[in-house]
Structure formats: structure tokens, C-alpha cells
Amino acid sequence: MALIVQKYGGTSIANQERIQAIAAKVKKFRQNGDDIVVVVSAMAGETNKLIELAKAIQPQPQPRELDVLMATGEQVTIALLAMALEQIDCPARSYTGWQVSIHTDNAHNKARIKNIDTDKIFADIAAGKVVIIAGFQGIDTQGNITTLGRGGSDTTGVAIAAALNATECQIYTDVEGVYTTDPRIEPKAQRLDNITFEEMLELASLGSKVLQIRAVEFAGKYKVPLRVLSSFKDGPGTLITLEDDTVETVRISGVTYSRDEAKLTILGVPDRPGIAYGILGPIADANIEVDMIVQNVTADGTSTDFTFTVHRNDYPKAMEILQASAKTFGNGKVTGDTHIVKISLVGVGMRSHAGIAAKMFQALAQEGVNIRMISTSEIKISVVVDEKYLELGVRTLHDAFELDQEP
Ligand code: ADP
Ligand code: ASP
Ligand code: MG
Fold this sequence. Notes:
Carbamate kinase, binds magnesium ion, six-stranded antiparallel β-sheet
């Protein structure tokens, strides 16, 4: 008998029919003798609606109050799923994050799980019940409701699986697993049977929202067997694995993209030690994460243009800070661009194969896609391009590396 944690995302429980379908699915697992703990998201689109409601009243709502509001989405679905299960004679019990309790730090809107009480969960399992837990939410030491960042129900699922030492954590979504790229952008994308934690971490951090990055981190750290599957269609899904020989031979596993990018440049800064720190220090102090950085020295070698990217949400704040810095360091000129995207190629095979970057740049050049910035790590190459090239860029790379072929 296995203990399985199943997480269902927003589209999987978007309406009454879907909730009833999930209840039937869960009941089947129970009839096979498995113990099931379910983690659910809010219905598709609900969290966005709640955020809109908040912003209509206060453009920059207090993070604490936003958490109180956003956490309501998941409270609806846990109760409805518990009712749907009870209705088909499958005993179930729902819990909000704070009822469980899922303890987090106090970083509202992006809290991290610290520990989870398992007593109630184990007691209900022992009593033959399906336990249903609200994803995306927890409670801090002061009793405040917290949320875990967008897509955070994935992390709740994995954290619960780790705390319960579950046999497997299954993430049910609206696609059949992890694909070579977003199947909504490239219909020729192929489902991967497995992918390493390391590659999945890169994909998640570079924009692929099929799994929240913290969920992957958690699963890697606590060695939780993790699988992504469709809630609409039966199938093997994708298993996230520790690296093994079969995976090593795969050169490239996927292409991913992020629309959440913005670029800022400060022009004509003096070329001397301490400048990078002088520019980026205040940005870091404002809790803004910087991603790519490029510095170009002018032909006469006396000054440089300093460019970096941030999350699009942080752009206005970063621009304000940079304009202040320009008075101290630069010739006063700052430029910015929010119409850019990042496209990345990921694969553990990059370690052992040369020429991948050249092939990537050639493929983009042949399609007339201009590369604005480049960054690399051991297993990924990212380029920043104009927003209008997003689909073309993703499809071009997917073709160039023959990712549409059966793995
Ligand atoms: P859920 O609501 O179930 O959490 P999400 O919308 O958060 O679902 O994540 C699933 C979506 O992730 C898919 O519909 C797909 O468009 C997108 N996606 C992006 N990259 C990939 C990828 N490489 N493989 C599979 N899905 C991907
Ligand atoms: N409902 C939350 C969101 O939309 C959490 C999740 O779906 O994972 O981000
Ligand atoms: Mg999600």
C-alpha cells in the first residue's frame, strides 16, 4: 500500500465537472488500496481575479492583506473536493494551510515553508480518510496567513510529500508531463519520460511554469520522487530523476522562455573599480534580483555602458534607483526596455558537447532574430531578444536541436 500525495492545479479543478472527475479519480486510487493526500490550487483564474479585486481598491496592496485575500481561492476548492468525495462515499476531510499547520517564514507573498505538522494528516489517514490540503498557503509564527508565491501549490504538494515521507508526489496538470518546450507555443513539443532535477531546476527558473522552482528544489533536497502528469488523460507523465547514464546522453532536453523580463542601461559610467557595486548595491538593497549583466567598454577605454535585466514587475522601482545612481556615476543617461523576453536552451549534455552555443546563435541568425544579451551556465544558454521574436525563437531552436523527434 502506497502513500501518494497528489496535487491538482487550477485547470484540473476549474469547475463542478472537473472537481467531480478528480473525486472519482481519487476514489479509484483509494479502491486500489493507496492512501491519498490531495493538495489543490484555486480554480483556474481565481487567484488573478482576487489580485485584480485588490488592485482596484489599492494599487499597491499591503502584502499581508493580499495574502489574506489570495488564500481564499484554495479554501473554496478544498471544501468542494471534500464534498464531492463524500458524495461518492469516499470519506474525506479538508484543511487550510494554517489548520494543518504549514509553518512558513513571514515573507508575505513569497513565504518559504519551514515545517509541517503531520499529526492531523496521519490521524485522518489512519481513520481511512482522504486528506485534502489547501495549496499555496501557510501561517507564520505570529499567526499571519502567508502565501508561497505564484504557482506555490506545487511546493505545498512536494513539501507535504517530504513531511509524510510519501511514496511519490504526483503533480496533475493540463499537459501530459514535462515537454521539450511549452506545447502551447510549439505543438511539435515532445513529452519527456524523465528529466533530471538539475535540468528541471533550470527550466523552472528560466520561466517554464509547469513546476514552481521551489517545488523542484524541495524535491531534490528531500529526494521526493516527483512526477508530472495530466489530470485529463491517463499516461506515465514525466519522472524527475536524479542524474543517470541514460539521461547523460541526451544533449538538449528543452527550450524555455520567460516574458517577465526588463532591461535597464546606464550610459557612460567611468571604467574603474567599484562601479558595478555602486550601481547594483542600491538595486540589491531594494530587494530586486538582477539576472543578466553586460558591461561594454567604449572604444577609448575611458567609460562603459552597464546593462542588466530584472523581473518586469521590478522595472519601475529599478528605473527610479538607476536614475538616482546616474547622477552620481554616469553622464546622467539611463535607458530601459520592457519589450524583451528571454529564451533558454537547457540540457545536461551541454557539459560534454561543444558547439551548442554556436549552433543556437546560427539558427537564430538564419531567422533574422537579433540577440540582445547572452548568458550561459554549465547546462544552459539564455538569450534576450525582442518580445516579437518569442514564438519564432522558441520554434527555431526546437527545430534546430531536433527536439520534435521521438526521444
Ligand atoms: P497548474 O494550474 O496545473 O499548476 P500551470 O499553468 O501552472 O498548471 O502549468 C502548466 C502549464 O505549463 C502548461 O499548460 C504549459 O503551457 C506550461 N509549460 C511551460 N513550459 C512547459 C514545458 N516545458 N512542459 C510542459 N508544460 C509547460
Ligand atoms: N492559486 C495560486 C496561483 O494561481 C497557486 C497555484 O495555483 O499553485 O498562483
Ligand atoms: Mg502551476
